[in-house]
Specification:
Blueprint: E1 2-3, H1 16-25, H2 31-52, E2 58-59, H3 67-74, H4 83-87, H5 93-102, E3 104-106, E4 109-111, E5 116-118, E6 125-127, E7 130-131, H6 143-153, E8 159-163, H7 165-171, E9 173-174, H8 185-201, E10 206-210, H9 220-236, E11 241-245, H10 255-260, E12 265-269, H11 277-283, E13 289-295, H12 305-319, E14 324-328, H13 350-353, H14 359-373, H15 379-397, H16 404-411, H17 424-431, E15 440-441, H18 451-462, H19 467-488, E16 492-493, H20 505-508, E17 512-515, E18 522-525, E19 528-530, E20 534-540, H21 547-555, E21 560-566, H22 568-573, E22 576-577, H23 583-603, E23 608-612, H24 627-642, E24 650-655, H25 664-670, E25 674-677, H26 687-693, E26 698-701, H27 714-727, E27 734-735, H28 746-776
Helix pairs in contact: 1-2, 8-9, 12-14, 16-23, 18-19, 23-24, 24-25, 27-28
């Protein structure tokens, strides 16, 4: 029996990767320093896994920004607009790579970034490959080969990790009509063969192919591509040991296809799809090793050893020890790095901490399970089993988890609690009293959190600032932001959220049932790391959370100040969620807490309230057959949070980096008065779904990409608004950035928003001219 890992966090135990990359982008450090930090992280990760007892250790799971983008660079799938970046004197391969991820605006060049979207149903964002008809592929970057060799120099023979050819193509996007991306397999497969040939020459033993699309609904053409690809790879490399990794869901109706593929090891996710084990055991060929994904790669709860041992014994009884491996359910990039870094009991009590495991601890759990099942069990290992039993038992009976009052409130909910007083058509008439213009301008909520602002929070926590001193500083920063928004003539203002650390963490800190880590960072995209709250118990709101700062900001202006909240589904999705009750139950508890906050904001005189739900689409189950159940409770949770207010109070919501075509009816069912969405990277393509559906409520398609440092020109935004107007009536349109501005700098933010306001003015002016011409005729 062997142990394997599918991937390890690449941010570094102290977020070293984030810091060096951001310094490089700011021209504060050199190219060689970035490479060295990356190398240090890789070496640390490989050594840690070897010392922990992992037999098959991954390489090529490290990335400076995104592993899908790594593959696009490796395969030479580089959009033509980056040709000038490639040719720019002095640019390294890494500069091209970052330009594809973030855009490039310097030295006379102005190139937009590639699109970004969610990695299946996680909060990780990947850079979407762009394909044209007859897309050529070639081996452009040798990263995968270099990193295998690098590990070998350390005395560690790793298992290179590749996104499988079919999944890579399915992750991408056709950028022109007239072809299907899966047809590009004939162009792509030779590059895989070349990579494997080079690895083979270095005596590689195992290669891991990640094929998560095998857990999704596939077309017949997709299935034939799978059969073709793995048949050709096996024919070219008869002795190469292929690890086929599936995760995030069960194989379902792809079981026969998957178990027929000529691979050596099949990995399945038994955390998300425990019930698939019997079917896989019955279907799998005798010679294929089964890798059991038992340790949860996406959550922070300690593994239940007794339960896992029972599953392992079931597999061993059927296949024998040599044909069973033990592993995490998926890559550990979705887990924080090391629980040992949590040393502050104010953040995380000892009672809760005993229930948790981060990536380092999960690796140890995998190794311990192997020792227990193979009876390589010294006293220390048996002691770990006993400690595990105690922790699992303690969690089940803990008094801090259950709140009868919260459970009773959920049980008492009625259908009317999830409905506004009147339909949108009546609310719209009432909301016209707000006297907002066509192309009303606003932002999504947050303004830049400078190092100075972040330092105030740190000083408050360590006691070097009093609460009064901290509040005075936040008040001054809020006043400056409000005054500046008035100066540029935004129509609906925001207070800037300077008092908030993260859009989910901030609320979780004020809700009962949540706990917080100090160092539980996970990568969201690029250098952006988030620290998800831990929902361990029943959720309720002890007191108002946002009213103080929103009401203060409203007192500074005669313009409308938008109340800013995070919605229940997003709080759920972007937290580590308790796994001892249905997620729908936890979501409804959160919805009631947000509902209380919405009502308090309205009572404080706030007329416009935004409840962000960027994670609605992300939360969809991977199989369409399971969608409706999720959408029923997710949409209902949002409506519970939003439906306690009067008709004249305008409810906004925000969603980003999602495809909406297949759930547009459900988005309409949410019944928000205004929805703002990300559309700039897709050049308004995402708006087509709303146009085809004839979305009845108001909509703000984002006119510039906040995830890129480049400042768009006014003409770009005008062109995007013209595209929007071509499909959505102007009286329904708002003008806003794609997302919040927290991660941007003030200089670029001010320049971009001034251009955005001017673009809206230009659209209004053009409409007045058109209206006058029509009247004259």
């Amino acid at each position: 029996m062997l142990t394997q890992n599918l991937g390890y966090p690449r941010i570094g135990s102290q977020r070293e990767l984030k810091k060096i990359c951001e310094n490089y982008w700011a021209d504060k450090t050199g190219y060689k320093n970035v490479l060295q930090v990356g190398k240090n992280i890789r070496h640390e990760n490989w050594k840690l896994q070897k010392e922990a007892g992992i037999d098959v250790i991954p390489s090529n799971d490290f990335s400076f920004y995104d592993h899908v983008l790594d593959h696009s660079l490796t395969f030479g799938a580089i959009p033509k607009r980056y040709n000038e970046v490639i040719l720019k004197k002095g640019n390294e391969e890494l500069d091209l790579y970052f330009a594809m991820a973030r855009g490039y605006q310097k030295e006379g060049l102005d190139v937009v970034a590639m699109e970004m979207t969610k990695w299946f149903d996680t909060n990780y964002h990947y850079i979407v490959p762009e394909f044209c008809k007859d897309q050529p592929f070639k081996l452009f970057s040798t990263k995968i080969i270099d990193e295998f060799y690098e590990a070998k120099q350390l005395g560690i023979t790793t298992k290179p990790v590749l996104i499988g050819p079919v999944s890579y193509l399915l992750l991408g996007k056709e950028k022109e009509a007239g072809f299907e991306k899966i047809d590009l397999i004939k162009n792509l497969l030779p590059v895989y063969i070349e990579i494997l040939s080079r690895l083979n020459a270095l005596d590689v033993e195992y290669v891991q192919f990640d094929e998560p699309f095998l857990t999704l609904d596939l077309t017949e053409k997709d299935k034939k591509a799978y059969e073709h690809v793995y048949k050709e790879i096996r024919k070219a490399f008869p002795r190469l040991k292929i690890v086929l990794a599936t995760y995030f869901e069960g194989l379902g109706n792809n079981l026969a296809l998957t178990t027929s593929l000529p691979v050596d090891v099949l990995h399945i996710d038994l955390v998300r799809a425990e019930d698939q084990l019997n079917d896989v055991l019955a279907s799998l060929k005798e010679e294929i090793i089964l890798s059991l994904g038992l340790v949860d790669g996406r959550n922070i709860w300690k593994n239940d050893f007794e339960k896992s041992l029972s599953i392992i014994n079931q597999a061993v009884e059927k296949r024998g020890l040599a044909k069973v491996w033990i592993a995490p359910s998926c890559s550990l990039i979705h887990s924080p790095v090391d629980l040992d870094n949590e040393t502050n009991e104010k953040n995380l009590s000892a009672e809760i901490k005993q229930w948790l495991a981060y990536a380092k601890q999960k690796i140890a759990e995998v190794a311990t399970l192997k020792k227990l099942i193979t009876h390589e069990s010294p006293a220390s290992t048996l002691q770990k089993l006993e400690e595990n039993k105690i922790a699992i038992s303690n969690r089940k009976v803990s008094k801090i988890i259950h709140n009868p009052a919260v459970k009773a409130r959920v049980s008492a909910l009625k259908e009317k609690d999830a409905e506004r007083l009147s339909p949108f058509s009546a609310r719209k008439i009432k909301q016209q009293e707000l006297n907002l213009p066509n192309y009303a301008t606003t932002t999504i909520g947050s303004f830049p959190q400078t190092a100075e602002v972040r330092s105030w929070r740190a000083k408050l926590k360590n006691g070097s600032l009093t609460v009064e001193e901290y509040d005075n500083l936040i008040a001054q920063e809020t006043e400056k932001a409000v005054k500046w928004q008035e100066e540029i003539n935004l129509d609906v203002l925001v207070h800037g959220e300077f008092e908030r650390n993260d859009m989910v963490e901030y609320f979780g800190e004020q809700l009962d049932g949540f706990a917080f880590s100090k160092n539980g960072w996970v990568q969201s995209y690029g250098s952006r790391c988030v620290k998800p709250p831990i929902i361990f118990g029943d959720v309720s709101r002890p007191e108002p959370m946002t009213v103080k700062w929103t009401a203060y900001a409203q007192s500074l202006t005669s313009k409308y100040m938008k109340g800013m909240l995070t919605g229940p589904v997003t709080i759920l999705q972007w937290s580590f969620v308790r796994n001892d009750q249905p997620r729908s139950e936890t979501c409804t508890q959160i919805a009631l807490a947000i509902r209380d906050e919405v009502c308090d904001l309205e009572n404080a005189g706030i007329k416009i309230i935004q409840i962000d739900e960027p994670a609605i689409r992300e939360g969809l189950p991977l199989r369409k057959a399971d969608w409706q159940n999720y959408l029923n409770w997710a949409v209902k949770a949002f409506k519970i949070s939003a439906s306690g207010v009067k008709d004249g109070t305008q409810i906004h919501t925000h969603m980003c980096y999602s495809e909406f075509n297949d759930i547009i009816q459900n988005i309409a069912d949410m019944d928000a008065d205004v929805i703002t969405i990300e559309t700039s990277r897709s050049q308004m393509e995402l708006l087509d779904a709303f146009a085809d559906f004839k979305y009845p409520n108001e909509i703000g398609p984002g006119v510039y990409d906040i995830h890129s440092p480049r400042v768009p020109k006014r003409e770009e935004m005008v062109q995007l608004l013209k595209k929007a107007k071509a499909v959505i009536p102007s009286e329904q349109l708002w003008v806003n950035p794609d997302c919040g501005l927290k991660t941007r700098g003030w200089d670029e933010t001010k320049k971009a928003l001034i251009e955005m306001v001017e673009a809206a003015k230009e659209m209004r002016k053009a409409e007045k001219v058109l209206s006058a011409d029509l009247q004259a005729n």
